[in-house]
Structures are given as C-alpha cells and as structure tokens.
Specification:
Number of strands: 15
Mean pLDDT: 97
Shape: globular
CATH topology of the largest domain: Aspartate Aminotransferase, domain 2
Number of helices: 17
Structural class: alpha/beta
Number of domains: 2
Low-confidence stretches: none
Radius of gyration: 22 Å
Strand order of the largest sheet: 4-10-9-8-7-5-6
Largest sheet: 7 strands, mixed
Bound molecules: 3-[O-phosphonopyridoxyl]--amino-benzoic acid
C-alpha cells in the first residue's frame, strides 16, 4: 500500500476516509457522499485544511485546545517522557513521577479539599469512575441502598455506557440500551426555551428545586449524588440563571448528597477562573476533568476527589482502574500544559482581556434579526437562533436553522458548532483581540448569510 500523507489529493483522502474510517456522532453514508474536510495542520487558533484554506477555530477542537495549537513545549515534554519512561502502570504498588507530580499539581489548583486524583484516559472514563466511586463510598458507609445518581436532561457526561447514562441526551439513550439502572434525570435550567413567563431568577430556583423534589420522591436514603456541568457545554452552552447554583448547593448540603461538578469543558480557564466551580462558588465533592487538562494534546482525564470521600474509599481495595490511568506521557504533557497556562497568565488573559473584548462583540449580536439570546461566560458562549425574537420562539423543525448557520460558518472559514438551534463557541484561550475581531467578523457574515437563506426559504416570521 502506498503511504497516505498530507500530500495526497483531497479527493483521494476523502475516499479512503469514507471507505475505512467510522466517524463519531456521524451518519457515515451522508458524510461519504459529501466528503470530510481534511485538516492537515494547526497553529495558535488557526487550522489549515488539505486545500490550503486557513480556518479560525472557534471551538478549540472539541472544547479542549485551551493553550492553542502548535506548542513545541508540549511535543518536547512528550518526547522526553517517551524516551525516559513511555509507560508504566500504577496498579501494583508502583508509581512514577509524572503521575505523582500531576496529582500533586491538580490538588494544588483545585479548590477546597479536592486533594486526591484518580486518573482516566478521558472524561467518559472519569465519569464512569465517579459512578462506581460514589456508590462504593456510600456502601462503605453502611448505606448500599444510597446509589441513585441524579443528573439532568440535555447534560453531556460522555459516551461510554455509564457516562452516556449519566448524560441526558435522548438521542443517545435511544441507541444501545441506555440509561443503566439507578440514574435519573431532572430538567435543565434553559430559560430561553423553557422559562415561559418566569423571570430567569425565578426559573433558576424552580429548576434547582426539581432536585429537592426528586430527592423527596426517591427518598434521601437512596440518592448517592447529583452530577452537573457548571455550564452545560455540549447541551448548547446553557448558562444557568444566577439563582441556580446557590440553591443546588443548599439542597445537596441539606440532604447529604454528594455533588459532582463535571468540569471537563469548564475546567482550566474556560470560564475565566481555573474552574467553573470557582466562577459559580460551587463546592463539589468530586470534580471530573479532561480536555483542557492537556489542551487535547494527549488523552487524559481524572476525578479529583475531596478528603473525606477519598479517605473512605482508601479503606479497602477499590476494584477499578484503566491500563492508561496516569499514563506517564499524557501526565507529562498535562503538567507542561498547566505550566504554560500558569506562566503565560492565560487564565488572567481570558478574564481581563479576551472575555471583555469578545463580550462587546458577542452581545452586540443580540440586535441581529436571527438571534434571540446571547450568553458568554469567560470564553464559552452561545447564541439562541429564533424565527421570532419577541416571542422567544423555537423553530418548528429543531436543528435545521442551526445546521444552515453552521454550514455558512464553514463556508466562511470559521468553526462554530450548532446544538439544535443554538450556536456555540469555545475558542482557544490564547486568542488575541485581533483574532477575536476576525472570528466575530466571520461569524457575523455567516449569520447574515444564514438569515438571508432562511428568509428566502420562509423559515422566519414575516417582519
Ligand atoms: N463531560 C463533559 C462535560 C463533556 O463535555 C465529557 C464529559 C466526555 O469526555 P470525553 O473525553 O470522554 O469525550 C465531555 C465531552 C460536542 C462534544 O460535540 C462534546 C464532548 C465530546 C464530544 C463532542 O460538543 N464533550
């Protein structure tokens, strides 16, 4: 077989891709007919495709390339570690420096007494760990019946059977036998579509109190934990009203329920603090991290666990672990990434420079005829598309407007994702103000084009 490289013609790469490569969350035949866009290189916030187009990445890959693309330091950290110790496990009374150093660093960065780290290869795996961990914790405390985990509709916690069950994605649950038993879901705090006549603050309280109602319905003695993303990411960057998290915290405290903050997207600077839990003053017992932990340069995730839970678990053997738990190369890359994020002041850049600049441009889109709501926390933002701004209306055929808009973005060499009819961004945290202007110019053009197309197709309320 001849070598397959960046130098092959795009059509040839697309044909091989279609013949052999199954893509996640993709209808294979549809993509095969169209051909995937082949990304060949990246630098900073810029992707290059096989046709030489330069695309600005408004999504940091999949919400993960916080430090930006092309950092030699991370490549060198990986090369050094591969040469010195490419692999060793931590199962049988052994350890190694990258795992030790990264665990200690995460304990230092994470708020409160989140001082203990269980490593995984991804966010999905870390959440699978969390399912077993919280149930085993209660069992060891003599309460084996305390095993139900409450999550939220439209949450995303991963794609393994366990983490996909924690998630509240209906389309995922419809395939392959999810959710597993003893995971239940309450409604999300999506004011724009579900808030009705209530003010955002009233609605935030209402939605938080669904947790208390669910605990009452199940019995406090049966509920192990509540899991939530500080801000729902893959669900469409649903920013909760300010009243939501304080009430959730009160309820978890009052009912002896462990609180798991899934920080896979919100961690490592995304919201303008190291963790979303700090932005919302949440005090979780367990935090799930992945993605920005290594800026996506190497696959690694972790559960960061508070003193009390870790202490109870440590009392006997926790029969759980992955071959790649604490993988030395991934841990070394993550450590180097955390060093760069800190030494280059990236979290401060998000809070003091990038967010304020982006916020001015982002919220100006509230005047766009297609946009019903603009949300931005740190560098994660969303726009709700609507056919009728005044009525906060949803499109009758959810997802079509979002898809049209995303296609216009793609055509304008900007990557923005759509979640049904919410457009979301999550650019690399190192984005400069000039790059934010380019990003926003392209997004605005894409929205104008999408608006014109939807108007021509009669999808919008007549003005
Ligand atoms: N928790 C959260 C909050 C996530 O966003 C996971 C867990 C799972 O992580 P892994 O590393 O197992 O993928 C995620 C992942 C999208 C998209 O289209 C989002 C994710 C993954 C893939 C696609 O928005 N989030």
């Amino acid at each position: 077989m001849k070598p397959i490289t960046n130098h092959l013609p795009t059509a040839e790469l697309q044909a091989l891709d279609a013949a052999h490569h199954m893509h996640p969350f993709t209808a294979g035949h549809g993509l095969a007919a169209k051909g995937a866009r082949i990304i060949t290189r990246a630098e900073g916030v810029w992707l290059t495709d096989s046709e030489g187009a330069r695309i600005i990445d408004g999504m940091a890959g999949l919400w993960c390339v916080n430090i930006g693309y092309g950092r030699r330091e991370l490549a060198e950290a990986a090369a050094r570690q591969m040469t010195e110790l490419p692999y060793y496990n931590t199962f049988f009374q052994t350890s190694h420096v990258p795992a030790i150093a990264l665990a200690a660093r995460l304990a230092e960065l994470a708020p409160g007494d989140l001082n203990h780290v269980f490593f995984a290869g991804s966010g999905s795996e870390a959440n699978d760990t969390n399912i077993r961990l919280v149930r085993h914790y209660w069992a060891r405390k003599g309460k084996p019946e305390k095993k139900v985990i409450i999550s939220r509709r439209n949450a995303y916690h991963g794609s393994s059977v366990g983490s996909g069950s924690l998630g509240g994605m209906v389309a995922m649950h419809a395939q392959g036998g999810m959710p597993i038993p003893d995971i239940v879901h309450i409604d999300q705090p999506n004011w724009f579509l579900e808030g009705g006549e209530a003010s955002p603050e009233e609605f935030g309280l209402e939605r938080a109190r669904l947790l208390e109602a669910k605990i009452a319905e199940l019995g406090e003695n049966r509920v192990a934990a509540f899991i939530a993303e500080p801000i729902q990411g893959a669900g469409g960057v649903i920013v909760p009203p300010d009243s939501y998290w304080p009430e959730i915290q009160r309820i978890c405290d009052a009912h002896d329920i462990l609180l798991i903050a899934d920080e896979v997207i919100t961690g490592f600077g995304r919201t303008g603090n190291w963790f979303g839990s700090q932005t919302y003053d949440i005090r979780p017992h367990i935090m799930t991290v992945a993605k920005g932990l290594s800026s996506g340069y190497a696959p690694i995730g972790a559960s960061i666990i508070c003193d009390e839970v870790a202490d109870v678990i440590a009392g006997d053997e926790f029969n759980h672990g992955y071959t790649y738990s604490g993988h030395p190369v991934c841990a070394a890359v993550a450590l180097e990434n955390l060093r760069l994020l800190e030494e280059e002041g990236v979290v401060d850049h998000v809070r003091d420079v990038a967010h304020p600049h982006l916020a001015r441009r982002w919220h100006a889109l509230a005047d766009h005829p297609l946009v019903g709501e603009t949300k931005l926390v740190g560098l994660m933002g969303s726009l709700a598309l609507t056919p009728d701004k005044a009525a906060r209306a949803a499109f009758p055929d959810p997802g079509t407007a979002g898809f049209i808009t995303r296609e216009r973005c793609f055509a304008n060499n900007v990557i923005m994702r759509h979640v049904w009819d919410r457009m979301v961004i999550s650019p690399p945290l190192v984005i400069t103000t000039d790059e934010i202007d380019i990003l926003m110019d392209r997004i605005t053009t894409a929205l104008d084009e999408a608006h014109a197309q939807m108007q021509a197709e009669g999808m919008l309320k007549a003005a």
